[in-house]
Predict the 3D structure of the following.
Amino acid sequence: MVTALTGALALSLVTGCAQGDSVSAGGNTVTYWLWDANQLPAYQACAKGFEKNNPGLKVKITQMGWADYWTKLTASFIAGTEPDVFTDHIQKFGQFADLKVLEPLDDLGIDDSAYQSGLAANWKGQDGHRYGAPKDWDTVALFYNQKMAKEAGLTADQLNSLSWNPKDGGTFEKAIARLTVDKNGKRGDEEGFDKNNVKVYGMATGGAGDADGQTTWSPFVASAGWNYTDKARWGTKYQYDSETFQSVVDWYFGLAKKGYLAPFTDYTDGANPANAQVASGKAATSFDGAWMISTYHTTKGLDVGTAPTPIGPTGKRATMMNGLADSVTKNSRNKEGAKKWVRYLASNECQKTVGGYGIVFPATPDGTRAAVAAYKKKGIDVSAFTEPVNDKKDSATFSFPITDYAADVYSLMRPAMQDVFANDAPVSGLTSTNDQINLVLGQ
Amino acid sequence: MTIASSSPPSRLPLGDATGAGTKQRTRRAASRETQGDGRLAAVFIAPALLGFAVFLLWPTLRGIYLSFTRFNLLTPAEWVGLDNYVRMVNDPIFWDSLTVTVEYVVINIGVQTVSALAIAVLLQRLTQSAVLRGIVLTPYLMSNVVAGIVWLWILDTQLGIGNEIISAVGADRIPFLADETWAIPTIALINVWRHVGYTALLLFAGLQAIPGDVYEAAKVDGASEWRMFWRITMPLLRPVLAVVLIMTVIGSFQVFDTVAVTTAGGPANATNVLQYYIYGAAFGRFQFGYASAMSVALLVVLSAITVIQYRLTRAGQTDLG
């Protein structure tokens, strides 16, 4: 009996478990959390610059992996051991704003025009206050195995100018069919291709894409003219019930039925993400984010190239442009120091330093230029990621959906999209999921 | 209790042979004595009682209270009456996760108990080797999360060594953790692999308590091993088996970590066991009130199952002697 009690009520106890290491130090120290280990040296360099400019203030940086990061941050808010400043993600912003755990940053004097377009505006809450200072940005592009592309007879120019449509898939579908090879060496576009015994898939699977499809279906639905919500920011209705959305998703997952896209079962978040499928030679291409550039380029035995997302029915390419920000916690023990640090993180000076490491695109144009130069020095061409941001004529960028109840949307859409991809459930079923989501949003 | 029996018997009241006055005194002395024992008992019980109150009773009561509130943990709880329970009854995902959990428990406990019993009997009847007992226990020494991750890698459809072997012998690869039909049985068997040794050792200890002369007598009568198992081992092991079953069923209902690291509830909620759903509601969506209501439901389900199991298996009685 006693054991039964413990199990069912462990929940109440967990609140106590989060206590322990007090992180926020107060006094003259500013505690700062980030999740990307690759970026740690760059921000340590920034911290040095900051400490030099602000004698007496010290920055203590803690880095932990993506999954642990959010669990620990949540626990720290509950236990009152939150850091003074942390790297914030737009997907979590709505929830943190709801929970009122963020400090308004209006007095930092952030100038929207000092950053790449749209980045600063995303971090304003529904109450009109600013809760994050722009830090960096990323876009999505197509990584491809150069050797496999050459064997398939596809040139870089061809891959850079692919287009698609939901009817016959366009040159994009032709290309990934060509890159697909079955057990007998037949290519996806050849007579006698065996779709049930594929050796190399034309495109790696990144799973079902949850609610955003950032590196899966989002470049396609967006270049077909669809957007997640009725408004660019703080929308009140999601649009997963749209015919455009559903037909594009149907076509996209249909690529797996044709044997060109690796099936859902080949994807495991922990064991076999898209980049691992490309690294192991099981897939020829994959859509992935700019944060993966170094990972792909340092993969042993892989000669990788990148191409922008294909041109869609709107006549434009589309990629999500997602920007991170630095936020100050409401219960920070050193608000003044924290704000100074965020101001410095958002400054051209720090962003140029970070850019110089060639691991991420900082939010200021100068920072971005520094990053592009640093990548070039390493022999990496990043134009597939930067072009969509610079070229507004042929490319469109869009943001993560910014709404209330993001966690609820995620928990409803994740199984629904998996059902479509893994279990071949009809895509029209997403309409009822969308109704549920809008019901939650309308609360 | 040892405290009560430590009182010297000579000091106990001996009846009224010594007259009324003495009787009065003796009674007073006895009552003082009992009081003294009571205080001593209280001192001994206090730490356990304090632990029970702080770590079980209070969280239980608070959990039940929270199930009647809307609570995001960061702002004060707001009383909503039965709202969370109404929502729970009408929540198809809750019922779905309960079904998934039961499916998991049936496979997990069924396979685990039979295998553990077989291992325990073999350990007792064939060998007394402590090394072998140690080996049987090894998977249990590994953390659930590590076991989950290792199996995730072994069973990965495309890259896992398990599937490489399946593919090498000419069979089709099996998406053990990525297919809705395979996922729950796979997770159940991963946990069988981890727990079966421990369960076998518990049963083995129970077998040790069965007197050897019973088997000797049966042997003299010409009974086979098979017959002895069903006529002697099983009936005499019943109380231990019952307790082991109750404990493992409770543990099995609370499956969480293996799911969290291997499938995260997917694909399409196929492995969204109740504890994982509760966790998501609480720490993903900050709906601690609703999560508490579901926790209370789990408590009720487990209590009912435990009582039924206890009655059915007559866990409190033995057939020995």
Remarks:
- Chain A has two domains: 20-137+322-398, 140-320+405-441.
- Residues 1-24 of chain A have pLDDT under 50 and may be disordered.
- Chain A touches chain B through 50 residues (CB under 8 Å).
- Residues 140-320+405-441 of chain A form a domain with the D-Maltodextrin-Binding Protein; domain 2 fold (CATH 3.40.190.10).
